[in-house]
Amino acid sequence: MAQPVLSRQLRWLPVALALLCTTALSLLLFTGVQRAARLQSASTALQLAAGLTAQPQLMRSELTLIQRGLETQTYVGDSLRTLAGSREASNVAYAQLADAIKAAGLDARSDTLAMLDKAQKLWAPLDKGLERLGNNKTGDLYSDSAAGSTLTAAGARLKRSVDELLATQTKNTGALSRQVSELAALLREAVVNDGRSLRALLLGGSALAALLLASMLYFSWRAGQAARAAGIAQRQVAHIMGTVREGLFLIGRDGRIGGAHSDSLRGLLRVGTPAGQDFEQLLRPLVDEKTLLAAGKYLGLLWKDKVNEELIESVNPLSQIEVSFQKAQGATEVRYLSFSFRRVRATASTADHVFGVVSDVTERVLLQRELDSLKSDTDSQSALLLQVLQVEPLQMQTFLGTLDAAVRRSNALLRAPGKQRADLQQKLQGVFREMHSLKGEAAALGLGTFVRRAHEVEDLLSGLRKRAELAGNDFVPVVVRLDELMTHGQEMSALQERVGQARSTAVSANDLPPERHGDTAVLAGGQVAAALARADLGPTPGEQLKVALQRLCAEVSAASKRDVRLLSEGLEKVPASLVPRVREICIQMLRNSIVHGIEPRERRALTGKPPVGSVRIRFTDSDQENYSLIVEDDGQGLNPEEIGMRAVTRGLLDATQAANLDRSGAFRLLFHPDFSTADTVSEHAGRGVGLDVVNAAIRDSGGRIGISTTAGKYTRFKVLLPRAQAEADSQSSAA
Amino acid sequence: MTEVAHRLMVVDDSNVIRRRIERANELPGVEFVGAARNGVEALALYEAVHPTLVTMDLTMPEMDGAECVAKLVQRDPDIKILVISALADKLTAIDALEKGASGFLCKPFTDRQLNEALRKLIRT
User: Fold this and answer.
1) With helix as H, strand as E and coil as C, how does A652-710 read?
2) Do strands A142-145 and A148-151 pair parallel, antiparallel, or not at all (unpaired)?
3) How confident is the model at residue A2, as a pLDDT?
4) Spans of all domains in chain A
5) Residue A536: what pLDDT?
6) What is the rounded CA–CA span in Å between residue A427 and residue A419?
7) Mode of pairing for the β-strands spanning B80-86 and B53-57
8) Which CATH class is domain A381-511+520-537?
9) Cis, bond preceding A393 (omega within 30 deg of 0)
C-alpha cells in the first residue's frame, strides 16, 4: 500500500502555507476595517459638503425675502428664524466636515484642506454678517399709524443690515457655493476610490480564505491518511507481537518491563502480566544469585554511554541460562533460555529503553548434548572396532608398542627432577614431541581415536606453554590424559585379541582350501595362529611403510582439502632396523608437504600447474656411506621472507633480526620448536613441531638434512642417514 | 572529514599478545604508541605517551586490569579501553566494564576480530 507520507521538507509546507494565509488574512481584515472606517468618514464628509453646497443660495433667497418683506412691511419672523437656523447648521457642518476629512485621512491631501480652508474663509464674512443680523433684531419692526405701517428704528436697522449683507455678500455666496461643490466633487472621488480599494481588499481576503480552507482540507486529509496508516501499522505490530515466538520486551530506566511486549513473553517466563514488573525481580526465582548480580550489572552497562554495546555482547550473563519452573504436581521443568539486549536510543534520552529478546533454546541445547554423547559413543565403540579391522594386526601391534614407549617416555620426562622454569619448559617440549610423533603414526594408520587423544594432549601442553608461571601441579591433567591414552591402547589391544580369535575361528572353519584342511589337523593351535599372523603380515616392513604413507597422504589431503598424489620409490629397500626412523621422518615431511607446500587446486590452476599436486619420496641405498631419503613436492616452495615474518609473529625474532635474515638462516628457523607457517592448528599441522621431530630423528641417527627450493615451483628435503649408525642400531636392538 | 589520530597503548603480560596487537592493528588513524606488561607499567607509560585507546588484559601481575582501568579512567574520562581476556568469569569482565572500560574482546581472537573490535571502540 502506498503511504501518503510526504518527505520531511514537504510535510511542513501546508503548515507554513496556512500560517502565511492566516497572517495575510488578518492583515487584510485589519486594513479592510480601517478602510471601511475611512470610507464611512469620507462619505459623511461628502454628505456634509453636499448639504453645504446649497446653503449660500438658500441664505441669499431668505435675505432677499426679508428685504422684500421689510419693504412691504410684511412678516419676516419666519425667514429670520430660518436664516439663523441655516447659519447654525452651516457652522456645525463646517466643523464636522473638518473632522470627517481628518478621519477619512484626506487631510493628507493638500488640495482638500486648501479647498476647505478657502470655503471657510468665504463663509466667515457671511457668518459674521448673519450674526450681526441676528443681534439687530430687538423690538418690533413696524409701527402702525393712520398713514399706514412704517418701519420702526429697529426695522430700519435690520433693513440696513440686510441691504448691506446682500450688497456685499452676493458675490461671496456664489463663490462659496462653487467652492463647496468642488470640495464635494473631490470627496466623491475619494469615496469612489476608497470603495474600490475596499472591494479589492475583500476580494483578496476571499481568495486567501479559500486558500486557507484548501490547506485545512489538505491537512485533515493528510491527518486522516496518517491515522489510517498508523492504525494499520498498529494492527501489524499487534499481529507480530501476538505471533512471534521470541519474547520481545522493553526495559525502562527504572528496570521495569514496558507495556508493549510480545505475547510469548508470558509463556517463556511463566508470568501472567510481565508489563510493569521489575525485570530483575522476574529473574530472581529463575537464576542463581551470581547470575542475577551479573545480569543487573550487565543491564547497567547498557545504559552507560561510554560502553559500546556491540563490544559487550560476549559478556552477557544471560546468553544461555538454565531455568527450572515449578510444575503443578511439585515437579520441576528445566528449560534453557537465551536473552539478548540492545539499547534503544530515543531522541530524548529519558525515553530510552533497553530492548530485550528472550527465546527458548532448550531443543537446541538438548540436541547438541545428544549429538555430543552420540559422538563419544561412536568414538568409543564402532570407531575402535573399525580401526581394528582396518589395520594390519602386526602394524597395530607395532603402533601399540610405539604408543606404550611414547607414553612411558613422556611420564619419565614429567617425573624427572627439575622445577625451574627452563626445566619445566623442556619437559613440555619433550612430551610435545612424543605426542606429535605418535599422532603422526596414528594418522598414518588411520587410527582416528588415537589422533584425537594425542591432539588433546598437545592442546593441553600448548595451553601450559603460554602460561607465565608453571608449577608441577599444572602437569596433573597431562598425566591424566596420558593415562587415558594408555588405557585406550590397552582397550584396543584387548579388542584386537578378541577380533583375532574370532578371525582365526572363522578362517579355520571356512577359508582354508579343502586340500590343506587335513594338514591343519596336525598343527597345534598356536602354530595356526602364527601362520595366520604371518599370512596377515604378508608384506615386508618397507612395503607396509609404503601403504601407511599412501593412507596418510589420502587422509591429510582430504583433511586439508588438497589434491595430492604420493609417488614412492625404493621404500621396500629400507632396512628393517631403519623403518621406524624413516617412517617418522616421512610422516612429518609428507604432512608438511601437503599442508604447507601443495597449493589448493584453484591456485595451481592459476599458475599453470597440473591440478593434482605430487609428493615424491625416494629411498636409495646405492651410496657406500649413507642411505639417502628425498622428499620432494611440486608445491609453492619456501619463501625466506615469509618465514622471517612468521618468526617475528611467533616472537622468535625481532623486526631487525628478521630484516637481516639470510636464506639459510630462514630455513634453519623451520626446525625451531615454536615455528609453524600454517594459519590454523589442526590435527595435521600448525603447531610447529613437525620439522622439529624430523630434526630430532635425524640427529639421533647421526644424519643430516638439506633443503633446496624454488619459490612457486618445488621444495626438496634430502636426508642422509649414515649406514654405520643404522647397522649399530640394528645390532643393539637385536641384542 | 579530518582524520582523527588515535593513540593505542597495549597492556598485556604476554609478549606474544602484545606483539600481535601491535602488528595486527591496521586501522587508519590509529597509531601504536606503546606497550606495558602490567598495570603499574601502564600507568607510568600513560603519563609518557597519553594514549586515547587502550587494550587491557585482566589478569596481570603487579596491578590487575580492572584496577588499572579505574585508574586510567580517573586520569582521562574520555579514554577508550578494550578489555581483552579469556572468558572464564563474566562477572570479572563486567566489573572492568563498570569501572569505565568500553568493550570486551574474548581470548583467543583473530586479527580480524581484533581490528573489528578496535573499529567499534573508536566509534563508541
Assistant:
1) CCCHHHHHCCCHHHHHHHCCCCCCCCCCCCCCCCCCCCHHHHHHHHHHHCCCEEEEEEE
2) antiparallel
3) 42
4) 10-220, 247-364, 381-511+520-537, 541-734
5) 47
6) 10
7) parallel
8) mainly alpha
9) no
Lateral strand order in the sheet of A321-326: A247-251, A353-360, A332-344, A321-326
Measured CB to CB, residues of chain B less than 8 Å from chain A are 13-16, 19-20, 23, 61, 80, 82, 87, 90-91, 93-95, 97-98, 100-106, 117, 120-121, 123-124
| B16 within a domain of the structure (yes/no) | yes
pLDDT of residue A39 exceeding 50, the answer is yes
Q: Which residues of B touch A318 (CB under 8 A)?
A: none
* CATH 3.30.565.10 fits domain A541-734: yes
What pairing do the DSSP bridges indicate for beta strands B30-36 and A714-722? unpaired
Give the single-character DSSP code of A305.
T
Which residues in A have their CB inside 8 Å of a CB on B? 290, 293-294, 297-298, 300-301, 306-308, 310-312, 314-317, 466, 468, 648-651
Dump pLDDT digits (tens) for A577-596: 888 888 888 888 888 888 88
Does pLDDT of A520 surpass 50?
no
Q: Residues B57-67: pLDDT tens digits?
A: 888 777 888 89
User: What value does the mean pLDDT take over residues A8-17?
Assistant: 71
Query: Which residue in A573, A585, A500, A586 sits closest to A540, CA to CA?
Result: A573
Expressed as residue numbers, the domain containing B94 is: 6-118
Distance between B1 CA and the closest CA of chain A, angstroms? 23
Amino acid at A270: R
The grid coordinates of residue A614 equal 605430487
B124–A308 C-beta distance less than 8 A: yes
